[in-house]
Amino acid sequence: MSGADWRPSAHIEALRLRARVYALVRGFFAERGVLEVETPVLSEAGNTEPNIDSFTARFSGHRDAGSPERWLRTSPEYPLKRLLAAGIGDCYELGRVFRNGEAGGRHNPEFTMLEWYRVGWDHRRLADETIGLVQQALALVGRGAEVVSLTYRELFLQAVGVDPFTASDAQLQAPLDGVGIDGDGLGRDDWLDLLMTHRIQPHFPTDRITVVHDWPATQCALAKIRDGDPPVAERFELYLGRFELANGYHELTDAAEQRVRFLRDNAVRARRGAAQPPLDERLLAALQSGLPDCAGVALGIERLLMALAGTDRIGDVLAFEFGRA
Does residue 159 lie in a domain region? Predict the structure, then answer.
């Protein structure tokens, strides 16, 4: 530890910009009648997503309070959906989330997420609202951006000349020759993700908002799957320049299907020797009781601030990054 470690990792102007973005977010949703809520940071259940690791904590009080092992949230998604099932209507939360093992130039183990839900909307309509929010944020720093919206298939055909739904594994791997990737144990979705992160996303223009919608059904996460040839996940991702800012879904409302996806995730985690978080039975009960048709999206505030500030280093937009916390 050096003597300079007490100083903030961000410039004061970056912290002022964060405050302006928070004010913008709250004003944006107040104008639209979307309610701000606050949900628990600690939960008895964890996130089963195989590529996300959670922090855990132990509660030392009386056992009547429930399980002593608690999981720090990786997003507020599950409790927000419980509120939706209870009839709260359109809502959002702006708060801290936690992901273990993610520390580096672009990642911090704790960061701020904005997540919101719109009842009766699909992912395409929600993508348009997300674009509007990002454009207003850009205006705070005197910038604007063109908007390009295209399907996942269109993006891959334009950028690397392969059809992500019909190409062979060898055809998916060919554009990555020379990158130095150890392909042992990688599946089809892994190669698609590598194409996105290594060959497509880095070439998005700085002053462009790119929206990619209708993803492979195998990458559905918590999104509905729309029948077709091929079937697609009703999901979108939004990028500002090279920064992935937001991930949104036309939300799955089927409790039985959600349970199957949770169990499938934990099976993958078991094969990898990773922890298998307990399923969120309260979320599943909420879905069973009736989650309204809705769309939801999570937006990383630090990623947005990095794009606004023109920096690749997350510490430049955090008061104190992980190494100085």
Answer: no
